[in-house]
Every structure is written in C-alpha cells, then in structure tokens.
Amino acid sequence: MAPFHNILKLSLVAHLASTVSATLNIAAVLAWIEHVPLLVTTQDFYPASSQPPVLINGGVAELVSNDTIDLAANAETQAVRGFAKNDSLRIIWNVASVAYRLVVNTHALTADGTRNITTLADLRGKKIGTIVGASAGYFVEALLKTAGLNHDDYEIVVSGICHEAPCGNRTFPALFARGEIDAFGVWEPTVELGIQALPADQTKVFQDKKVYREIYNLHSTKEKLEKPEKRKEIVGFLKNLIQAQSVFEYSPEKVYERTSNAVNISVPLLEKVWRIHDWSGGLPADLLDVLEVEDEYIARLDGREPNTREKLKEMIDTSVMEEALEQLRAERANEWF
C-alpha cells in the first residue's frame, strides 16, 4: 500500500481541481458514512465553471439496471449480487474498508442458563440482530462460524439502524437495551450506540477484520469504461476522489463537520467510530478471495449457483485506478518545475 499512501499524502499539499467537465451520475446510499468522500469530491475538486457529478440515493442495483447511472458505491456483498444479474459490473477502487463489530450483552444467560455470555460460542440459541443478505448479515455468520456456530444455531432478528440517540423503539440499540436481542452486528454508528446503551461492564465487543471487513467499493460497467469520453470522466473523478480520501485518512478534522451534516451523526459520535474506517484506497490484494467466499453466501440466499473464481475475477478492473494514479504522478511532477 506504500505507493498509494505516498500519493495520497502528496495530495494534501495541493488541492487540485480536475479539468474534466463531468456529467457523471453516481449512486450511493446517502445515509452511510462511507459515501461522504464521494460527496466531498463533487464539492471540493471540481472548478466552479464545471458540472460536478450528481449523487443519487442507491447503489450497485441501480448501476446494473439503469443505463443513466455511471458509477455506484456499495459493499462487496452487493457487488456479487449485482454481478450475478449483470456481468458487465466492474470494481475500480476501494472507497473505504470497515472492520465491523458485534456487541454482546454479557449479562444474558447462556442457552442452558448456567452462566453469562462471555464467548462467541455462548451465543448458541440466542437472538442476534443483523440484516440478512447485506454485509452485516455475512459478517455475523462468518464471525460466529469461527466459534463453531452455523446459521441455524441462533435466531436472527432483523431491525433498524440508528444514527443518534435516543434511538427508535424498533432499532437494534433499543432492542439491545431492552434485552430483546442478546447481540447485534451491523455498520456504524449503530453498534457504537448499542455499546453506549448498556453499562460498560455489561457489554463485550467482538471484531476481527481477518474474518470480515466491509470493502466499500466504487463500481462502473464494462460498457461505460469502453466509451472514451465517459472513461475520461470516470478517470478524472477517481483522480479527484483519491485526493479527497487523503483528507479523510490524514486530516479527518477537516471533514468531520461536513460528514456530520451529510449523514446526521453528531461529531463526537463520528469521532468515536472514525478510525474503524480505513480510507487509504487502492484495490485490496485479497479482493478476489473475499468475492469468492461471499458469493457463496449471497448465492445461497438468492437461490442460485455461485460464480466460479475465474468468472468473479472479471469483476476487478485495475486499469482505471492505474490511469488515475498515473495522472496524479504526472501532475505532481509538473508542480516541482
């Protein structure tokens, strides 16, 4: 990752605007922290005279079904689902990686009623909150599998997320506080609010990024990338996004307030969960491994056969990243003369 970091650090020195006149439409869930670098890119890295990209609420599902969408950001679980429907889908960059957390009420009794919950294995027979078919659902299943628990060894409870206390009656933190679920795992800051919902000595957090981290990627399609003018716009956007992400990674205090306003999360809460997010970018070396194992999970839920590893490999396109990074290197070299 060192070459990416070197380029990202340099981008703090010069806040450059792209010369590309953008007409891009980008789909992302606008309520999630992970999407905000896209927003900052559109606001800060395009000249006032240009047309910046337009963000719409959505994700990969919109990209693969709507030709007016050029880019989409989503977790890798939704990428494999989208690829099964439209194999022109391509992953071109990692916007954020997030090591999800599972919070447990340690005062809940184990299945045999003999003691409190202290280990993942103790969750056998318990009620666990998550969102099936999403990144959170895969995370919970994968984490509990490390303790020898299969998905039929516990009861899944699906509920809602929360961005700020007091949380709604049917959100995960509220259910957790009332003892209606014994643990839950989903994206932030909902888990942090669950941790805060009970006394510190009554909760335990499990987290293992080797088992699961959300890989929140930027996607396009083969057809979009084969159109010269559209590709030029996409490469220009990615070049600007790389610069925006450097601020998130190295000077987050500059974007706390805007992130807070964009997703309705208070700055103090945002600061607590910020470093769970990795904004360093690139394309993870293990991305194909992750896609392969997660496609099995999604395929089981969707009632289809998993794609082969060779087929999934088609989804990863490094060429856009390479072009964007080369343009940044050339701009940096020109600044020194």
Automatic annotation (TrEMBL):
Pfam families: NMT1. The keyword Acetylation does not apply. SUPFAM superfamilies: Periplasmic binding protein-like II. Residues 60-190 form the SsuA/THI5-like domain. InterPro entries: SsuA/THI5. It comes from the Eukaryota. Residues 1-22 form the signal peptide. Keywords: Signal. PANTHER family: ALIPHATIC SULFONATES-BINDING PROTEIN-RELATED. This is SsuA/THI5-like domain-containing protein. It comes from Podospora fimiseda.
